[in-house]
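Sample entry (204 residues):
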Amino acid sequence: MMGDYKKITILENRNRTKLLVEFRKNVVNYFDNVEDADIGLGVYENEEAKQLRRTINMNLDRMYSLIILSGVKPVMCYSPPRAIGGFAGDIDLVINIFNLYEFQIDPQQLMDFIDRAIGIYSEDRLNALFRTINPFFWLCLILDYIVGLPFKIIGKIGFNQKKIETSIAGRIIKGVFYLITMLAAFLTVLEKTGYLEKFKSLIK
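Predicted structure, serialized as tokens:
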């Protein structure tokens, strides 16, 4: 379930928090086991750092997604020393986790973003509990899945699913799908409960 932090269950909330805490621990241990190498050669990694680097890389994409889904963007504006020059602009600290020394960025800057994400998930834990026991939350998830199916099919064909889905036309189509799906569900409930004919009479 890869929704943003406001659309997940308590179990998913706890799982994400646990994963991010473990990820942070690995990142801290990695930087504790590296040291500056000669100028221009980056850093020296001992054997433990090399193992941690592999572990971090294996989980990096998922951890990046969890941070982004918390609403945190781990990006900072970088300006090199004037005497040195070079690249200047926004740097994603998670994607460039193993290039921080190259830009002379303190790893604590990355830790701050990870801590913010962990804090957001922890703060939303009670809300996640309420969502989990709320039947309307599950109904909305089902509606989202049904409405999103046509766009997923478009993505499978080879088109840019996200671009189409977020376009004005895509949003209008999605809204129409929502209305149709909700109306169909409403009529189904009326039919199953025996109130469909009364509803038709009321409309007439």
